[in-house]
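Consider one such protein record:
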Amino acid sequence: LLAGGTWPDDCQLRLRTASGGYRWMEVTVAALRDADGTITGYVSALRDVHELVRTRQREQAERRRLQATLDSLLDPHVLIEAVRDSQGEVVDFRYLAANPVACSAVGVPLERLLGARVLPLVPALRDSELFARYVHTLESGEPLALDNLVLSEAIGQPQRHYDLRVVKLGEGLVVTWRDVTERAEMLETIELLTRNSGELVVRLDLDGIIRWVSPSLTALLGWQPHQWLGQNGAAFLDHGGTCPGYMDARPRLLAGENLVCEDRIRAQDGSLHWLESYITPRFGPQGTVDGMVLSCRLIDDRRAAQEALELKGEELRRKLRTSLAASAIAHEIKKPLGLLLLHSQMARRKLAEAEGGPGTLAELIPAIESDARTVVSTIESMNTLLRSVPTEAELLDLGNVVRSALLYQRPRLEARAIRLDTAGLEARWLLEGDGSQLQIALNNLIDNAIEALATLPCGQARLKVGLEPAGNDVVLTVEDNGPGFPKPCTDQLLLRTTKESGTGVGLFVVEQIVSNHGGELTLGSSELGGASVRLRLPLRRDRSAGA
């Protein structure tokens, strides 16, 4: 000052107080001059600004802490203020703060971004509706939350999906957004899959209330998804709201077990359809089961085929029972008639040797023999007729027959965790025969295998079904790793059983069906360690197996 300098405005110093502490003081100094303007001294004034300085220091520390927090966010985050025209209307926004992620998203470094206007850098905000909602949040204070917006973050960038959040802060706006493009694309893919899939997916809570259902519901059953949401799933089943099958399985579901159920369900037009459901428990955040997810499909065709097969099987079993009964009756009648014939022949020889020549008795005995021969011949003819089970011959693909039988058996195989291996089923095996009878034969063999495999621990049972060529024939093989046939393994097993509740006619039925098709049955041991049954059937003469 004495040298003619100037004292800085707002000069703040820490001065020591009488008590030994320090306080911030603002110092003002003015120069003293004589008549000719020469500085002869100065006058100073002190003002206590300790609390003001401390407040500013706290604000700066808080600002640094907030900036560090913003810089650590993974989502873009900016603070913008309104730019108004001469009439006070908001015409743009200006960046006041931004974290590094936001700078990267906009494509402008922080030193250039601060103070820059928003509209030239973010084309999405040029949309009049979105801009108006920003202004509304600024003027009303109401937060703005928009999900799955399709827009571009910056000029030259492709459109993507974003979740946007805007809140008022003082006279500005805090804007945060998140790129959810992958989530949106995944949801869109799931939407397409569930809408066009032949399966129905349903999510329920533990009380059976439907919380989500796939759009394929409309194509499969005619219902709109909103007609099911919030409803008890059992209300759409045939039994009108009570589902004992599912309720009985609830403890198993809570234990985390997967289930398979079949039931009839009502379509929107009132018609009933068979539904197969694969039920998986849904685990909540605490690791406990809080609901279930059902993957369902309509099985009307399979149930119809199953019922038709059962009817055909029952007819065949009825004919077989008749055949076996006829055989037994014929056998019992033929024995005394055979003895009668033998005794008649012996009596005739004795009479021929007797003195006096043949008499009245000698004339009757040949008649008895003739009648006996007639009865025996008639019974044999009736037995042959009754044992002949007609076969409805048609051209068929044995591979299709086997696949159909395996489809029918699949629920039982899955329920018992039996591993199924197949071979050669995709080739064409054309033959003349009755597909229903052949399915009955194969199902008999699979039923026997499933019962035999029940003795194995869960997950260790194996079943193999295969087709392979053998000259002009095809061989259908069914093998398992169960206990196998008793030794020696001969055709005598066809009318015997080793099961307590068995009838002993299962393999006999198979043998009869194979015989009706001009084939043969062979029993043996499997390479898997259990039983092996081979059915050899003639292929159509003008075509053999082909790919």
About this structure: The first strand starts at residue 11 and ends at 16.
